[in-house]
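BUG: 3D viewer hangs when loading the predicted structure for this chain

Environment: internal workstation, default settings.
Expected: structure renders.
Actual: progress bar stalls at 90%.

Input used:
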Amino acid sequence: MALSAELKTQIRDSFIALKNDMNGFQLRGSQNKMIAEISKTLTGEYPDSNRLLCVEAPTGTGKTFAYLLSAIPIAKANKKKLVISSANVALQEQLLTKDLPEAKKYCPVDFQYELVKGRSRYVCIRNLINLAEGNTEDDANLLFDEPPGVYQLKEMKDLLDDYSAKKWNGEVDDLTRTPDHNMWGKIACNRFTCTAKSCEFYNDCSFFKSRKKISKADVIIANHDLVLADISTGNTILPDVNESIFIFDEAHHLNAKALSHFSLSVSTEFIKSSIRQVKGVSEQICKLSQQDAIEFNIKQMDDYLQDLSLLFKSLSFDDDVHLFKQGKVDNAIAEIAQHINTLNTQHLSRFVILKDSWIDYLRIKPIDKQTSDTLNNAIGECEQHMIGINELLTSFLKTDDTKQSPYSRWISEKLTNKKTNYTLNSAQTDISTNLDNLIWSKVSGCILTSATLSSLGSFDRLNKQLGLVKVENQYLRLPSPFSFEQVDFIVAKFNANPTQVYEHTQEVATQLLERINNDEGTLVLFASNKQMQMVADLVENKLEPHLLVQGEYSKKLILEKHISLRQQGQGSVIFGLDSFAEGVDLKGDNLTHVVIVKLRFSVPNSPIDKTLADYLQSKNRNPFMEISLPDASLKLIQACGRLIRTETDTGKITIFDNRLVTKFYGKQLLNALPSYNIVIE
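Structure tokens produced before the viewer hung:
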């Protein structure tokens, strides 16, 4: 897979064409460097290295065109598919509507691109027809705890009419009003109920139509969730990993996405209703195929679940969560959970035998299509539920490998219909091995990129999280194309430190009123919603410019209102949380002052984080230095990155956190920042 001279020339020429043509496009040294490194890495010019490159490309590098125009020709020349995965919808839309059509004009090779979505985003037309065109009561009882209401059935009928008239393409994202979650679940595509090519609607199926397009595409736009889901269930939507080159844009989100993807949960009420559905479906099969009913021991399952709930009642819950220390489940709970798992496994194997005999029966004696379709769906659903229960309980009861950090296991409680419903949860605290097995060890080539990938000046944290071994891969940190020396980073003189919540909040309000310029665009970033609301209440009537507070409108609407006020020459102030600290692009005088209320140290508050922190402490390691500090550094750089978006932008950054001056780690955080002019008041 060497980089031929011809390919090199093609890639270089495409950039020259882009530079000459595209309005406002500047070819920068750091972009050239990125193109060269992507090309060398993907074509194996580093002989003792994986074809994997981590590249930190600050805003303004032009990273999207750097990876599109270098990776597409290489993928095509080597008959590989290029899969571009992002963390959010905004970047997917930008790739689809703006960047890829633009790249198509300049790319030396012709290519097709498609957006891929998960199976459950598409309607199953067979399910929709069966639901909309009259269900018998028996059918409804098999699929629903409560049969659908008249208005829901009317909604299904309308959807079917629109699909038949080609007014709707069958994708949930293209509906102006989406059906409620439970209803959509019954009509969505599902791998457990899909009969693929043996379905009479196969040629008219929106999911398989999109699959055909994807199989022809050279470039596939995906997101991290879909990539993780697909490769862990055996690559049913995306091309094989070893036939693909992956680009993970916004790669700093990959770890969090993977941690949540590899977590499992199931509730006591769900186990209860599943066994009842299994019994109902089995009775229906036996009745129709004239065989003796099979015994499913509902009473025994109920007794075990009741015993389990009694044990859960005696646990201490903190914020509706009981976390097992170091992931070790109490013996009494483990014993009953084991009984439930054994019983569920027996039910599952009986059910699978029954399902197979039912399939054989239908071959000999076909029955009414609608009845068999509904029943087959219910069979698929039962199987899916029992497998899910089995996976969770197996993970919940597993003995952890002492060489690795333990699984996190916890019980959460929730009141539903005046009954307490308990959920059992099990999650990995370290997904590095999974990612290595599923992606790094198999993929033909891989680029991980983001404006912020390193923390405290190194890639160590990223490597640890994702299971990358530094000596085996290529790494590149590009300098920013912007000159930050003109930007003042002001550490405000503050009496209160953020741990003195009341005093700090009062002081934030006072200082904001003094520091905000009434004629400018300002973004104030908070680390907690509570503090944001309190400050908003304190400054609301005293602030001259318009105040837009996250939560009062959608993020999109806040940004639109802010820009419109700035265009009219009016001052505007946005109060925002985490989601405004990244992905917000306010150029020019739309934003000239960013205020950071405090450093965002993630307190280990999720069960997964707590388990990992406890584990590190038990090994005499320091979770603050290993996790909280590098993460806070990354978040600080990201928040500061809202200010300068183009070469002509100007402004200042003010931070209301005196720990940058008083704590031992303050210097480390300041040293890791871009080359701002640091002013300590």
